[in-house]
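Support reply, case 0932

Customer input (verbatim):
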Amino acid sequence: MATTNLPALGCYLAVFCWTREWVLVLCAAALAYYRNAMAVFVILGACCCAVVAKALKRILRQERPPGTDGCRQRKSYGMPSSHSASVIYFATLLSVLLADAFGTYVSVATAALAATGVAAALYRVKGGHHTVAQVAAGGCLGWAFALAWWACRRPVLLRIEAVAAWAICAASR
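Our regenerated output:
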């Protein structure tokens, strides 16, 4: 039985076993709490980033590490890691959003987001789901996608608001 000298770190890393569930719950909570176009924008960007990562997996067709998945052998390809892309996307976009809203005084929050994103990505390697190269490619994809998505925010937000206004008008008839 393996033991660790850092039990707190082990508990911290164990949270990453449920990354998908955490992201879903946090996205639903953000939508329910904020109910605005920016929340939809952030979540829509995450969905688009994940779709791009999945498409790249089908194009690149690089296998995952052999037989190291403790639960089951995954049938999908591993390059780039879509988990890493999504987590780094969120860490990057939320850091940019905080910096835009509060200026440069959010360095501690940005560092915490970056550390959590990197830890979640590296957990994919530790768990045997991906190689370091697959996680690094996913992280680079998430980072670049977040910055590009942020640069496109004005026209995307206008479209989100227009769809929301249309839906409200349609529902009130």
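We compared this against your earlier run and they match. Two observations from our side: The chain has one domain: 16-167. Helices lie at 7-14, 19-34, 37-60, 82-102, 107-126, 132-151, 153-171. Please reopen the case if you see a mismatch on your end.
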